[in-house]
Amino acid sequence: MRILGIDPGYAIVGYAVLDYEANRFTPVNIGQISTKAGVPFTTRLNDIYEDMVSLIDTFRPDQMAIEELFSNTNVKTVINVGQARGVILLAAKRGGIPVFEYTPLQVKSSLTGFGRAEKKQVQEMTKNILRLSKIIKPDDAADAAALAITHGYTVTSRKLGAGGFDGEI
Questions:
Q1: What domains lie within the chain, and their CATH numbers?
Q2: What is the Rg, in whole angstroms, of the alpha carbon atoms belonging to the chain?
Q3: Which residues does 1 contact at the CB level (< 8 Å), separation at least 6?
Q4: Cβ-contact 52, 8 below 8 angstroms
Q5: 130 near 25, Cβ under 8 Å?
Q6: What is the pLDDT of residues 118-164, one digit of tens each?
Q7: Which residues are catalytic?
Q8: What is the SS3 assignment for 38?
Q9: Measured between alpha carbons, how far is 107 from 31 in angstroms, rounded to an integer?
Q10: Which residues are 168's β-sheet partners?
């Protein structure tokens, strides 16, 4: 199964394309989509959408794992990330890619066994699981890889009869 992990944003969208077979992950492509500050926001959204379509067309993922939107104190940031997330979801839908969402707590629990793990712990586990020599940079790409790993583990648990999988959004 090929999984596209997405850490949504409007300045940087982290992504990770991982192949998952026989309980083993193989990195295919890990990176970021960046948009330019100072250009109209609609242009940034369009750039994200076009880059997502290109990623989907190039790597042909079977499923997408994306971080669930969470609220913080900056309402404008939440709204803008929500809009970016919307164009990402649209690209997935148009590409026929089922989308599954996970909270940061689910990702931390899946990778470290502890829902309150520090970011550094999650990054170290991601590096180890993917058999990399160093931690993925930038953080957005590392988060996307962690989301893809979480999805792979969750799908495997579901097939084995374990509970806790909410399914496609």
A1: 2-159 (3.30.420.10)
A2: 15
A3: 19, 20, 21, 62, 63, 152, 155
A4: no
A5: yes
A6: 999 999 999 999 999 999 999 999 999 999 999 999 988 766 554 44
A7: 7, 67, 140
A8: coil
A9: 19
A10: 100
